[in-house]
Amino acid sequence: MRLLVLDAALSRCLAALVVDGALHAEQSREGAHGQAAALPPLAEAVLVGALDAVAVVVGPGSFTGLRSAIALAEGIATARVIPLVAVTTGEALAASLPPGTAAWAVTENRRGELFLERFDADGAALGPAAVVAEPALPQPEGLVYLVGDGATRAAARMAARGWPIALGGARQVEALAVEAVARRRLAGELPALAVAPVYVEAPATT
């Protein structure tokens, strides 16, 4: 399968071509602003040959980044008449961990709070994404691995309370993790997900 991955949910724009589970080409640009202008040339740089599907990260994350990535993904998928697959930020971050690992994806919402997505050891979401203040982080029922750009901050708070947590390595979304989730969704192993921004608070144009 030849899959185009697009992401601008956090503080980096990413476009990548993944072929049969291997990274074929990747372009990225650091920065939390300017995604609408930055992402199209990144995608153009990796688009070589035919595509079987497009996967786009739909949030939670930057309001402008999500809209930009989804609009570009929709345009490419429509023009090529190929499937478009949505992947949440948390799904992609959690997919970086070994199978059988319970994960919490914790990302910054740029308002001082955190976006939280929780997954069981089978990768199933434990409810919708939520916004939590750092002091209000819930207690896990067992050991969980924290991933995402807010994971270090959350881990410090939770460890101080003596809760069972560990830090995973992923702070940003990676192309191969997005591809792994998209492949499972295309195969029917994960529930269908609308290709629309995942907003868990009133949008802010950041």
TrEMBL record:
Protein name listed in UniProt: tRNA (Adenosine(37)-N6)-threonylcarbamoyltransferase complex dimerization subunit type 1 TsaB
EC number: 2.3.1.234
Primary gene name: tsaB
InterPro entries: ATPase_NBD, Gcp-like_dom, T6A_TsaB
Lineage: Bacteria, Pseudomonadati, Pseudomonadota, Alphaproteobacteria, Acetobacterales
Record keywords: Acyltransferase, Transferase
GO MF terms held by the record: tRNA N(6)-L-threonylcarbamoyladenine synthase activity
Domain Gcp-like: 49-97
SUPFAM superfamilies: Actin-like ATPase domain (SSF53067)
